[in-house]
Amino acid sequence: MPGIKDAKCVLVLGATSGIGRALALAIHNLDSQPTVIVSGRRQERLNELAREGERIRTARVDINTTEGNLKQFVEDTVAKYPDLDAVIFSSGIQHIFDFSKPETIDLSTEFQDEISTNYISIFKLIVMFLPHFLKLSEKGRPSFIVPISSGLSIVPAATVPNYSATKAALHSLSITLRLQLSKTKVQVIEILPPLVESELHDHQGKTPALSKVWMPLKEFTDRAIEGLIRGDPNVPVGSAAQQFDQFEKGKQEAAQKFYERMLSLS
Length: 266
Ligand SMILES: NC(=O)c1ccc[n+]([C@@H]2O[C@H](COP(=O)([O-])OP(=O)(O)OC[C@H]3O[C@@H](n4cnc5c(N)ncnc54)[C@H](OP(=O)(O)O)[C@@H]3O)[C@@H](O)[C@H]2O)c1
Known about the structure:
oxidoreductase, alpha/beta, NADP, oxidoreductase activity, six-stranded parallel β-sheet, NAD(P)-bd_dom_sf, Rossmann fold
């Protein structure tokens, strides 16, 4: 099965810290020597990352933006890197919402930004990158769409209800994308991390408490890379793997049967 070892040029969205940064460096160091384009909003972090590897390139973007800006970003990236054959969606944000204090829930900014960053923009970017990947497929070349959801896509965390819902949406999207693209060489590899060492929770002031129980970033990256190299459709890690085994077994197959039934009706 083709895996990330077969990719020539990998775009990592959300590479300025945490999981995206670690995956970008690990992929850059594979024997296959791919070009890695690192992306995110913080240019100084991108510059610093570019100094870490000879085949690391930068492409700054804020994905929480208009459809026109996203389209421009995709067109520019594909024009500059025609070999682009993998996109890893590691960009994400997380907010705590307390329904027992509804007046504290920021509907106009935090709620909207979380949905837009974690789901809507990723959906749009996938749709925008697909024509390029489908052209590669016609030439017999594999390509990779790598959404990063979460164990919370399977078992939601009540403290972060909207975040959990965006991850559940991304997980569902990964299943249906994989089914619709199954006759092409476009592979969907969903990574489902457990709680992992990163900056995701810094603004919540929760990092000291969480750091006692999170998976160290290096351990997570080593395990995720193994699944990416093998080209596993799902790469659940740590507690997310236990949740996957408990609640997700047979879901892809059930969705496939349902899809085939729907297709046979038309
Ligand atoms: N750490 C965990 O416990 C955990 C668990 C399960 C799933 N995940 C998921 O794993 C992914 C990586 O998270 P992480 O833990 O590595 O968190 P992180 O260290 O906070 O990294 C998040 C990345 O997303 C980027 N980002 C955020 N908003 C963006 C925007 N509007 N446009 C472009 N880039 C944006 C950030 O870059 P800039 O700020 O420079 O834009 C940063 O590089 C996320 O999707 C997260 O939901 C994390």
